[in-house]
Amino acid sequence: MEKPDNCILVIFGASGDLSKRKLIPSLFDLYRQGFLPEKFSVLGVGRSKLTSTKFRDRMAESVEQFTESEPVKKEQLQAFIKSFHFISVDPSNSEDFIKLKSKLETLDARYKIGGNYIYYLAVPPSTYQPIIQNLGSQGLQKENSSTASWKRLIIEKPFGYDLESALKLMKAMKKVFSEPQIYRIDHYLGKETVQNILVFRFANGIFEPLWNRNYIHHVEITAAESIGVEGRGEYYDGAGALRDMVQNHLMQIMGVVAMESPSSFDSTAVRNETVKVFQSLREIPHDKVSKFAVRGQYTTSVIKKEIIPGYREEKNVAEGSRTETFAAIKVFIDNWRWGGVPFYIRAGKRLPTRVTEVAIHFKPTPHFLFAQDSKEADGLNQLIIRIQPNEGLALKFGLKVPGQGFKVQNVSMDFHYSGLANTRVASAYERLLLDCMLGDSTLYARGDAVEACWKFVDPILQEWQNNPDLKVYGYPAGTWGPREANELFLEHGVEWRYPCKNLVDDGVVCEL
Ligand SMILES: NC(=O)c1ccc[n+]([C@@H]2O[C@H](COP(=O)([O-])OP(=O)(O)OC[C@H]3O[C@@H](n4cnc5c(N)ncnc54)[C@H](OP(=O)(O)O)[C@@H]3O)[C@@H](O)[C@H]2O)c1
After folding, report:
1. How crowded is the C-beta side of 47, counted as CA atoms within 13 Å?
2. Is the N or C terminus of the chain more exposed, i.e. has fewer CB atoms within 10 Å?
């Protein structure tokens, strides 16, 4: 495995939740597998008045609390955090960035880094622009071709709030950093199972010939969560399911499912193909939004004798809020491969279980020979790609039930990731952080792709915000969303797949 160049990882918002739960534990996992650069340092940045010693103590606690894979060895942990430092910087104070520059020069000389820095913006989106601007005013984005030193910027979703703000953010970033320096993280792309869609499609000869409008009837992409807003009411109420899940994670998955085969497995070639998918999305006109998109909000319900408050009763959610906790959309990709094949995408909170999956529904046989004994002509052939939990694949088809007659039963040939090897599966952040250090942006979202996705969802967001006639349908917490979401499907005579029927998650893993 190639070792990344020596570098300093500068984490803005190092005192926050994302650093504590994801970034630092992922770095620790990389460290103990020997994947970090020979010379490596973390510089935590924030308004907090932390000393470097206090910062190291806090990061050590995070590793102990949030590293799941193996028990943490004390000596290893101490060796890992010994090159961690902290500096107090206010994102909006340009003077503070002079201090930051000087601190980076000191650390660079001390650890013999050679000028390679990654700036990770693990801060609220409102601070992205001042940070980027201030980095630029100190020349901290400048690369040096004679020493081959590089600078990279990782930004967290949301990449904007709507098309207009996304374009504004992009313009501000491009003033300082060039596109190849920008790494927009969408942690779904870092998930092993999403990457496996690429391998499944392009390493096998048997599925790709079927992967088109001639054989596929429709595609479903579902991201269900059984939890509610869990104390993040303020953030969620300003976002909603379409912005929080669909515009980024689920559309990125759709890109991987629908793309053409790239000419090589290189970041430009792969991302050229996904962006073509987004650029081929059939625009939804403002006056047709109700035909292509449905939104819902969970209402009070009793689950296992416990009263579950409705969304509007959650803390920090506005009274009478019309923010959707469930969104379902019907999407068409107008190209030769997918012409006429609907992609149904849904995401929601307080659904019966936690599951993310892609379901490919193949067309039925042109004539069903066994109708005398069976009614199961439709829905026999499905491929389920389970992204989480219980990661795996299941191919469903009809077989004869033993005995008299010809009764056809749907059976499943399935594969579970856990059965592949006794190998630890890297977390998405681990994979993506290492890719950035290696300069590989294949699994990061490119600017043109983000823009195309915003262009597609923007009319829906605008109509939902401005048109009081477009209803927010209620659904009792613990059910599969509003009934109205089914109406999207009527013209095709099919329904959503219900991975677990209407059972409320019992900690039981939903079968493939
Ligand atoms: N948490 C997650 O699991 C998660 C998942 C996906 C995406 N994200 C994204 O990742 C980013 C960070 O998330 P987070 O949950 O870690 O955020 P957070 O805990 O709310 O904030 C991170 C840090 O940013 C600094 N900060 C907060 N408000 C600020 C302000 N108004 N001005 C300047 N600095 C401020 C604080 O550090 P100081 O007080 O020291 O300055 C805080 O510790 C966000 O963009 C979020 O959308 C987070």
Report:
1. 8
2. N
Rg of the chain, C-alpha, whole Å? 24
Q: 68 versus 510: which is more confidently predicted?
A: 68
- Cβ–Cβ under 8 Å, residues 331 and 345: yes
Q: Which of 139, 168, 185 is the last residue of a domain?
A: 185
Contact 182, 153 (CB under 8 A): yes
260-316 pLDDT, tens digit each: 999 999 999 999 999 999 999 999 999 999 999 999 999 999 888 889 999 999 999
Q: Is 342 in the pocket of ligand 1 (CB under 6 A)?
A: no
Cα angle, residue 370 at apex, residues 369 and 375 outer, rounded to 5°? 120
Q: Is residue 308 part of a domain?
A: yes
- Whether the CB-CB separation of 161 and 124 falls below 8 Å is answered with no
**Looking up tokens 């028990």, which residue turns up?**
71
| CA 453 / ligand 1 centre spacing (Å) | 24
Of 154, 185, 216, which marks where a domain is finished?
185
Nearest atom in ligand 1 to 48's CA: 40
Q: In this structure, what CATH number is given to the domain that contains residue 232?
A: 3.30.360.10
Contact 140, 100 (CB under 8 A): yes
Is 217 a known active-site residue?
no
pLDDT in tens, 423-446: 778 889 999 999 999 999 999 999
Pair (112, 45) in one structural domain: yes
- Find out whether the beta carbon of 125 lies less than 6 Å from any atom of ligand 1: yes
89 Cβ below 6 A of ligand 1: no
How many domains in the chain?
Answer: 2
The one catalytic residue among 249, 361, 367, 492: 249
Assess whether pLDDT exceeds 50 at residue 502. Answer: no
Give the structural domain span for 132. 7-185
Q: Average pLDDT for residues 234-248, to the nearest whole number?
A: 95
pTM over 0.90: yes
Tell me which residue has tokens 């010809």.
406
Q: What CATH number does the domain containing 42 carry?
A: 3.40.50.720
